[in-house]
Amino acid sequence: MKKIYAWEPWFFLFFGVFHMHRIWALVARESYASFWMGIMEEKGAFYFILMGILALLCVVGIITFVRERKNNYWWRWIYLCGGAYVLFDLFAIATGMAFWQDILNKMFDTKSSYWNLIWGFFILLGTAVFALGIKLLRKSHSDRYRKTDQDG
């Protein structure tokens, strides 16, 4: 039987907000780029806490995908595909992979003609993921109430 775990809507809401915060990139390029490049170069407490949370969520999502492989919803593929990407991204940043740093430098080039396209894509992705989180939250609540009505 398919089940939506209580934490799953919050997973998507968190990642949605994390991606939608990039609206800041469209409003204030320089401060956005400076902030995140500084975080990634400094690798201080904020960096490790945020990266730890992101990594933990990805690992839990991947484990859930594997554990529920016979009863998966279509959206759990996001755990596998998105989670693998995020874990690679975190690993590449943490280890300072040169080719990944080049990609990041291009992404955070505030004078590039593709700035709005890159960050606009992340905002749209975040909006879609956030909407999925809301949909899952509603479905999980209605499923719980339906189950309560059947039990009572």
List strands and helices in order, with pairings.
Elements: H1 8-20, H2 23-27, H3 29-42, H4 45-67, H5 77-95, H6 98-107, H7 115-151
Beta-strand share of residues: under 5%
**Helix vs. strand class:** mainly alpha
Low-confidence stretches: none
Distance between the termini: 21 Å
Helical element count?
7
Can you give the mean pLDDT? 92
Number of domains: 1
Task: Describe the structure concisely for a colleague.
The protein has 152 residues and is mostly helical.
Description:
With 152 residues, the protein is an all-alpha fold. The chain has one domain (8-147). It is built from 7 helices and no strands. The two termini are 21 Å apart. The mean pLDDT is 92.
What key attributes describe this structure?
152 residues; mainly alpha; 7 helices; 80% helix; 0% strand
